[in-house]
Write a structure and sequence with these properties.
The complex is a heterodimer of chains A (320) and B (870). Chain A has 320 residues and is mostly beta strands. Chain A contains 2 helices and 24 strands. In chain A, the strands form 6 sheets. Chain A has a 4-stranded antiparallel beta sheet. In chain B, the strands form 17 sheets. A 7-stranded mixed beta sheet of chain B has the order 51-52-53-54-56-55-57, with no helix packed on it. Classes of the chains: A mainly beta (320), B mainly beta (870). At the A-B interface, β3 and β19 of A face β57 of B.
Chain lengths: 320, 870
């Protein structure tokens, strides 16, 4: 099987990672099992985007890859089209992740970064999206499937609403010091804006008033990256923690969403949508250089950068 | 007083007696008190050495001589004293010499060796002496004592020798051989307490206000001597003295309390050995101080005819008591050319017409026993004529006009006294029916007042305020009769707004009405023939709005409005609407609906907080007056078994089955995992339950018209119908259907989204459908599958924004099952929500559509808008 997914012609390759050499190395190693399967399965479909004409059922799973494109591996193994893994979010230790999987209703689960110990939290009864552990791991933030920001113990027990009611909330995340919570809230006109509140759900303050989404704290807590829609297309911006000093990030062609910061705050991984495909790119904020991390055909999204580490977790959709 | 010391007496006498040499003085004497002592020693040897007679001793001569070295034949005098009997530290030592000749340059004294005698001392054997001059005198005449301070050279008992020289010229001094009275002396003083030797004295003028200064006098005793002062007030003879409190300084300012008394000062000298006091002589009797003005008199009051001015004397110095006399003066307008005003000698002065145009000053004369003086005030401003008199009402204001709502009342000011011109201001007041409890009517400040409905039942008064330069006063009219109301009368007919179409709501405008407020309005909607005649009340339609019903189609509608108030009522009717047309179709759409009866969240069909809300959503559908319901696939979970339909979908959404147009979803074709699945994978439960409404079971796609719109249901389970790609049977059918239905507005609906920010994402599988619809200028695509609500901007088949021809897609996977997560927000996504169950309500107008997301109870998320058809 030829694996010639040069970055110049990435769409022709089914490999998830854009550069070919890491995949080649991965193929030779035992850790690559998932990548091998993906690469082979995709290439089997005559080099086209995965199985479009056959409408094969794609599965969404969580993968890890180093930010240099090496050491790609799959850590979840979905069972059917509705077992869609999503929202991977690292524990501060960098050794495990919490995520949602769409088995209708969606469950919140944790998994070690080596793919072991996949456990449904809250005794298997915690349903929701967008889970994230507090920096000290003692609390778990998520969106309940019936709506509202909820908080539970780190193991998913004792969930209770932090902000709920008639309004709609999404994308809650802890500040790096664990004292504040960033989230989005839907306005009456249907658009979503960024808000921040204290960890006990009080002192709510609106940060933005444009159609915004996907907020992400920089690990030093001083800036927030997010996506903003302008004439249909999405662009990345950052603001300071008080909502001021807006800066646009140079994300290149396509619609850019879902930023996640490297531990040193120098780089941002994010999702680029062009047409029907999505891929993960890395932008170096110092050199302004962009690099594509995954092949568009791999339909990768929801990147999450490992705290204090070099791995990026993400979801990719591949036909099996 | 202390007695003079004997030493001083001797010195004074010496001064008086000049060269008298008969006075005998002991070798030494000690005077003073306590330990103090002054001892005087005569020399044991005194002689001089002469350069010109350098070998002859001169010790027996009655004089000594001194001649400057610069003369060429110098002479130097040597003295030697033997000091004994001195006790205590030496405080001073003074060498005294008596002059026989004068000296222009004075003499100098130095310490000298003591190994000589006057019998043998010559120029050649003269003792050595210090090059340092210890003391020097100034020039002196003949026959005086010259004192030289030799304290640094004398430390106590012992022998002391001194050399005397002169810087120029020559002089002669008495030696011991000249007699005791003029013999040289060495006076040695040892320590002792102060003793007054010359009494204190007072300088200054003995008059109230003046300051006296004390001089301590002369004192003996150890230096330094500190002095304390105490001023004393004594009788005119200088006796019966008493300390003056607080007067302990070296100077003392005399006050009026001292007038007639004399003053002494007692001085106490103090040093480390003790203290003693001495008193000055008494001053002459202290004289009083005459008055003197220090701040000019002033005048208070208004300089205007009829006003009274008051004088203030200003401030004065001088011995109290000071009496004041006043004299008012009339001056020209510049304050000059003043003349006393006859008879105006009081502290106040009433201005008269004679003062108008002048200014006024007052002269104040202050007097006491020591004399008198006068001071004048600044002039007043020019005296103005007397003020006018303020208005005063003499006949009260009155009101003319009819006391009825809408009428205008006029006020007459009544009669007034006072200096003209008098201006009048009016304030209308509303009072109770008895004319009491009046309150100002806001903004009613004119001479006339138009009565309003607010006045009905009240009486009215007007208060008039007359004003001139002198002031103002107010008077009130009698109360009017009680103001009566006016019944309502229509002045502009009622109106009807809204569209005359079934299912539309009409609203009534009451039109314009005159009459006393408040006017209440009652409404009655009436159904009339197409010409607006033959109207009849519509039963139960008595609100301000009316929803047009199907029974109204072909008729016109009027609204009759009845206005009522306390004075009566009357009615008026609107013009008829246009002829009521049939309603535009309203459809409700959603997919992903009914849970499997075996679902843990089924809960007897009621669902849980987060899942299985098919009943709640269908309750909303039932209340929404829908023309049709569109099922966007996955109508029944998990596999659309017929018995599952019977126990889950049918009791909920099935209540609208007769108007439902379904499209099949993937769960309809699922072969396992649920209740009563069709293992053959032909969605038998779905096609059986919906029957002909679901179309041909081998296809599952069909089309129909609603109102002016063409609607197309497609089957997204492509594998079941030969694919969905270009050239597939379904795609060919779609293209043909679009070609044969050229309705202005077209929509299609199926299950799997072409575009979605949800987990399913964008799926180009459905690009051929989209392209065909786009080519045919279709407006809308409705889908489900992702369990959320999402609205997209109009797009072409390749996710490009196209506001001119693009098709708007709604994902409405909110029919009741569950919610799922958004994965990646896609370009052109306009609105998203995934925590609210509900349905999309579309009103299909002939050339546009309205959309509205209808949320389940307890949720506020909604989304609405309108778009024109292509």
């Amino acid at each position: 099987v030829p694996l010639t997914g040069k970055s110049r012609t990435p769409a022709s390759s089914g490999a998830i990672v854009a550069t070919s050499s890491p995949v080649r190395r991965a193929l030779r190693s035992r850790a690559c099992l998932a990548a091998c399967v993906l690469a082979i399965a995709s290439l089997a479909s005559s080099g086209r985007a995965p199985a479009a004409s056959q409408h094969a059922v794609p599965l969404a799973d969580i993968y890890l890859v180093r930010s240099n494109g090496s050491h790609l591996r799959r850590i979840t193994h979905g069972i059917d089209e509705e077992d869609l893994a999503s929202n991977p979010s690292w524990a501060e230790s960098g050794s495990k992740l919490v995520f949602a999987s769409g088995e209708e209703p969606t469950y919140i689960s944790s998994i070690n970064s080596d793919g072991s110990r996949r456990v449904r939290l809250g005794g298997g009864n915690l349903h929701g999206f967008r889970p994230s552990w507090s920096p000290n791991g003692r609390r778990l933030l998520f969106i309940a499937t019936q709506g509202g920001i909820f908080v539970a113990r780190g193991n998913g027990s004792a969930p209770r609403p932090l902000r709920a009611g008639s309004a709609s909330y999404d994308e809650p995340s802890w500040s790096p010091d664990g004292r504040r919570i960033l989230f989005t809230k839907q306005a009456r006109d249907g658009t979503w804006h960024l808000f921040v509140m204290s960890a006990d759900g009080r002192d709510v303050r609106q940060l933005t008033r444009s159609p915004d989404a996907d907020p992400a704290w920089r690990p030093d807590g001083k800036r927030i990256a997010f996506a903003r829609q302008i004439r249909g297309r999405w662009f990345l911006f950052s603001i300071d923690a008080a909502g001021r000093h807006l800066v646009q990030l140079r994300t290149g062609p396509g619609s850019a969403t879902q930023p996640t910061w490297s531990p040193d705050g120098r780089r941002i991984a994010y999702v680029v949508q062009r047409g029907d495909s999505t891929s993960i790119w890395i932008l170096d904020l110092v050199t302004q250089q962009r690099r594509r991390l995954t092949n568009p055909a791999a339909l990768a999204y929801q990147p999450s950068w490992q705290p204090h580490g070099s791995q990026i977790a993400f979801v990719a959709k591949q036909s099996h | 007083m202390k007695t003079r010391s004997p030493v001083r007496l001797r010195f004074e006498r010496l001064g008086l007696l000049a060269v008298a040499a008969v006075f005998v003085v002991g070798l030494s004497s000690s005077v003073g008190r306590g330990n103090a002592a002054t001892q005087t020693f005569a020399p044991t040897d005194d002689t001089y050495a002469s350069f010109t007679d350098s070998t002859t001793p001169q010790g027996s001569r009655p004089y000594v001589r001194i001649r400057a070295d610069s003369s060429g034949s110098p002479k130097r005098t040597f003295l030697k004293f033997s000091v004994s009997g001195v006790s205590g530290p030496v405080t001073s030592a003074t060498l005294r010499m008596y002059s026989i000749w004068n000296s222009a340059s004075g003499i100098q004294v130095r310490s000298a060796d003591t190994n000589w005698s006057e019998q043998t001392l010559t120029w050649v054997n003269a003792p050595a002496y210090s090059s340092t001059v210890t003391a020097a005198s100034t020039s002196y005449p003949a026959n005086v004592w010259i004192s030289l301070n030799v304290t640094p050279l004398v430390t106590g008992n012992g022998t002391y020798s001194f050399a005397l020289t002169t810087p120029s010229g020559e002089t002669m001094l008495a030696s011991k051989e000249g007699g005791a009275a003029t013999a040289p002396q060495l006076l040695i003083q040892t320590s002792g307490s102060p003793s007054n030797t010359s009494p204190p004295s007072i300088s200054g003028t003995a008059q109230d206000g003046q300051t006296l200064s004390a001089n301590a006098g002369s004192w003996s005793g150890d230096q330094p001597i500190g002095f304390a002062y105490q001023w004393r007030r004594c009788d005119s003879g200088g006796g019966s003295c008493a300390d003056i409190n607080g007067a302990g300084g070296q100077s003392y300012a005399l006050t009026s309390a001292d007038v007639g008394s004399t003053i002494r000062v007692a001085v106490t000298g103090s040093n480390g050995a003790g203290s003693s006091s001495a008193s000055s002589a008494a001053t002459s009797a202290v004289a009083a101080a005459p008055p003197s003005n220090t701040s000019a008199p002033s005048i208070a009051g208004t300089p205007q005819g009829g006003q009274t001015l008051s004088a203030s004397a200003g401030s004065w110095s001088g011995t109290p008591p000071i009496g004041f006399a006043y004299q008012w003066r009339r001056c020209d307008s510049g304050g000059g050319s003043c003349a006393d005003i006859n008879g105006a000698g009081g502290q106040s002065y009433a201005l008269t017409s004679a003062d108008v145009g002048s200014t006024i000053r007052v002269t104040v004369t202050g007097s006491n026993g020591a004399g008198s003086s006068s001071a004048s005030s600044d002039p007043t401003q020019v005296v103005q004529p007397a003020a006018p008199t303020p208005p005063s009402n003499t006949s009260p204001p009155s009101i003319a006009g009819t006391a009825q709502d809408g009428q205008t009342l006029s006020a007459a000011a009544g009669s007034w006294s006072g200096t003209p011109p008098i201006g009048f201001a009016y304030q209308w007041r509303r009072c109770d029916s008895g004319g009491g409890s009046c309150a100002d009517i806001n903004g009613a400040g004119g001479q006339s007042y138009a009565l309003t409905s607010a006045d009905v039942g009240s009486t009215i008064r007007v208060t008039v305020t007359g004003s001139n330069g002198a002031g103002s006063s107010t008077a009130s009219s009698a109360a009017s009769a009680v103001v009566t109301g006016v019944p309502p009368a229509n002045t502009s007919p009622p109106s009807v707004s809204g569209t005359a179409q079934a299912m539309q709501t009409l609203s009534a405008g009451s039109g314009s009405w005159s009459g006393t407020l408040p006017i209440g309005f009652a409404y009655q909607w009436r159904r009339c023939d197409s010409g607006g005649g033959s109207c009849a009340d519509i039963s139960g339609a008595s609100g301000q709005s009316y929803m047009v019903g199907s029974a109204d189609v072909g008729s016109t509608i009027r609204v009759a409005v009845t206005g009522s108030n306390a004075a009566g009522s009357s009615s008026a009717s609107s013009a008829p609407t246009s002829v009521v047309t049939a309603a535009d179709p309203v459809v409700g759409a959603a997919g992903d609906i009914a849970c499997d009866p075996a679902d843990p969240n089924f809960n007897s069909g009621a669902g849980t907080a987060s899942a299985c809300h098919m009943r709640a959503v269908s309750d909303l559908l039932l209340q929404s007056h829908l023309t049709a319901v569109l099922g966007l696939g996955d109508e029944q979970y998990e596999c659309a078994g017929l018995s599952a339909f019977a126990s889950s979908y049918d009791p909920t959404w099935g209540r609208l089955k007769s108007i439902t147009y379904p499209a099949p979803g993937n769960h309809e074709y699922q072969t396992s995992g649920g209740t009563n699945c069709d293992a053959a994978g032909n969605a038998a439960g779905y096609y059986t339950y919906f029957g002909a409404a679901a179309g041909d079971p081998s296809k599952g796609y069909y089309s129909f018209d609603l109102g002016t719109w063409h609607l197309i249901a497609l089957n997204a389970s492509c594998a079941k119908v030969g694919g969905c790609g270009a050239g597939s049977p379904e795609e060919i059918w779609l293209k043909n259907d679009l070609a044969t239905h050229t309705n202005r507005c077209t929509m299609a609906f199926w299950h799997n989204p072409r575009y979605s920010s949800g987990g399913v994402g964008n799926d180009s599988t459905f690009s051929p459908f989209w392209q065909d619809l786009y080519n045919a200028n279709a407006e809308l695509v409705l889908v489900g599958h992702d369990h959320e609500y999402e609205r997209f901007a109009p797009q072409n088949a390749s996710s490009g924004l196209d506001t001119a021809r693009g098709i708007r897609e709604f994902v409405v996977g909110t029919g009741g099952k569950t919610h799922t997560n958004f994965a990646t927000i896609r370009a052109n996504s306009e609105v998203r929500n995934n925590d609210t169950f509900g349905f999309l309500k579309l009103t299909l107008h002939p050339s546009s559509y309205d959309w509205q997301f209808v949320p389940e109870p307890g949720k506020t998320f909604t989304d609405s808008g309108s778009t024109a058809c292509h």
